[in-house]
Amino acid sequence: MAVRNTQSLLSHLSELGFSVNREKSILTPTHCIEYLGLKLDAVSYRAYLSQSRVEKFVQQLALFHRGNTVTLRACLRISGLMASAISVVPQGLLKMRDFQRWVLSLRLDSRRHLNRKVKVTPDCVIALRHWKTPLNFKAGRPMGAVSMRRTVTTDTSLRGWGAVYEGRTVNGVWPLDLQQAHINYLALLAIFLALKLFLPFLRGHHVLADPCISVRANAVPTEVNHHHIWVVADVSPFRAEKRHLLPPLPAQVIWQFSPRFWSSPNAPK
Questions:
Q1: Cα–Cα distance, 45 to 142 (Å, whole number)
Q2: Where a domain ends, among 111, 142, 173?
Q3: Whether residue 156 sits in one domain with residue 244
Q4: Domain end: 120, 142, 164, which one?
Q5: What is the Cα 252 distance to its own chain's centre?
Q6: Which residues pair with 39 in a beta bridge?
Q7: Is 212 left (phi over 0), alpha (psi -120 to 50) or beta?
Q8: Is residue 20 part of a domain?
Q9: What are the φ/ψ torsions at residue 67 (nearest 5 degrees)?
Q10: Which segments of the chain does DSSP mark as H helices, in order?
Q11: Do residues 137 and 235 both lie within one domain?
């Protein structure tokens, strides 16, 4: 039946004027297939990095030891491999940012300085630690869209912050030193605090953080929108390690909990 359906599909595509590249196609029905560096398993319904892609990762990462010198081309090659794997490596997008930040700190042009040699620093080694863990390549990710997620809405100003989750509210006032911080930093800090407080209700679920920013002056729309996209992309998997999102919280942060939050029968103790 599967073979007959395959032939029927090929005939239909041919009638529509399409040409199938048989060398790059796998026309034999199978439950497991490799495509663009990914291994797609229809039985477990999970996607993994293909073995050839993992070997390429290991080969390139072997060059990045503390004190070694590598070319900018090698750095960009690693970045490209990361970009191709973020969909199946746990926290891939979040962990990729650390290495990107290190590459940008080199202040080299990707066209003129491809063969420029740079020294692998301790910061670079730390940024690659997640990618040198074999288990992260074997874990894989479930295929398909997220069927359900929890939504946490936050609001931030230079004076304070607030958050709402399913009718439960919480808010706080920034200490004087934080009131001088950039509004985008405060917006991310508000999300961190909200997720921390609502953790008993959110643990094990996908979370969509919807931030609002209130400022006295007009903010640059592109800058605010960029941070909104970053928050949704990087904070949505709540299993991400929050300590990588923000530095340690100031001890003098003033908490003001809404009575509505504590009066909820499901509120955390």
A1: 6
A2: 142
A3: yes
A4: 142
A5: 30
A6: 34, 48
A7: beta
A8: no
A9: 95, -20
A10: 2-15, 51-61, 72-85, 92-105, 122-127, 134-139, 183-197, 199-202, 221-235, 259-263
A11: no
pLDDT at 146: 63
Q: Which two tokens stand for residue 159?
A: 């004076």
What's the confidence (pLDDT) of residue 213?
55
Burial class of 5 by CB neighbour count within 10 A (0 to 12, 13 to 18, 19+): exposed
Q: How far is Cα 159 from Cα 117, in angstroms, rounded to an integer? A: 46
Residue 268 lies in a domain: no
- Among residues 116, 142, 163, the alpha carbon closest in space to that of 47 is found at 142
Residue 110 burial (CB count, 10 A): 12
Per-residue pLDDT of the chain (269 residues; tens, 9 = 90+): 777 888 888 899 889 999 888 887 877 777 888 888 888 888 888 888 999 999 999 999 999 999 999 999 999 999 999 998 988 888 888 889 999 999 999 999 988 999 999 999 999 999 999 999 888 888 888 887 666 778 888 999 999 999 999 889 999 999 998 988 999 899 989 998 998 899 888 887 778 777 765 443 333 333 333 333 233 333 333 333 333 334 444 444 444 433 333 333 344 43
Query: What is the identity of the amino acid at 198?
Result: F
Q: Residue 69: helix, strand or coil by DSSP? A: strand
The verdict on residue 13 lying in a domain is no
The model's pTM is 0.57
CA max distance for the chain: 72
The β-bridge relationship of strands 206-213 and 149-156 is parallel
- The contacts of residue 41 (CB under 8 Å, 6+ apart) are 31, 32, 47, 48, 140
Tokens (6 digits) for 133: 């863990």
Q: How far is Cα 123 from Cα 64, in angstroms, rounded to an integer?
A: 11
Structure tokens at 16: 């529509």
Same domain, 133 and 55: yes
